[in-house]
Structure formats: C-alpha cells, structure tokens
Write a structure and sequence with these properties.
Helix content: 40-55%
Structural class: mainly alpha
C-alpha cells in the first residue's frame, strides 16, 4: 500500500473518530434540566454514550466528509472508507 493511501486511510479514520466524538450525546440526566418539583416528559431523553453507530451510519458519515476538492474521486473515497472502516471494526 502506498504512503498516500495509508495517509488517506489514517486521515479518514481520524475524521470518523472526531465526528463520532462530536456527535456523541453527553449522557446527561433526564432531570438535570427539569425544574425542581416537575417530572420529565415522555420526550425527555437521557442520551446514551454506550451506543456505537451502525456500520451504515459510519459509512454515511465517512462519505459526508468527501468533497470535490478531495484528491480522490468519490468512488476512490468510498473504497477507502470501506477499507478503513473494515480495519477500524476488526
């Protein structure tokens, strides 16, 4: 594997980790933002930082990073995403 391909895969893996961290729910308590003496509503969620994104979501996130200015075609980017995600998931 060429140095450029390795560097691209590392950059994509890093971008995925950063995007996953940025999208992670802080997991705050449902009652943290609820005024005293009231009960949280059914729409209140507690969040979960223990749920990993599905492989489909990871691929979608990886593809969302691509733009026309990237040094790879979209097809090359997709292939690199698949390779990187495959190695990341092992």
């Amino acid at each position: 594997m060429s140095r450029i391909a390795k560097a691209s895969m590392i950059a994509i893996a890093g971008a995925l980790l950063i995007s996953a961290t940025a999208l992670a729910d802080p997991g705050t308590s449902a009652t943290a933002n609820t005024p005293a003496g009231t009960t949280p509503t059914a729409t209140t969620t507690t969040g979960s930082i223990n749920l990993d994104p599905s492989p489909e979501q990871r691929m979608k996130d990886c593809m969302a990073i691509w733009d026309r200015g990237t040094h790879m075609t979209k097809q090359q980017w997709r292939r690199t995403c698949k390779t990187t995600l495959g190695e990341f998931m092992d």
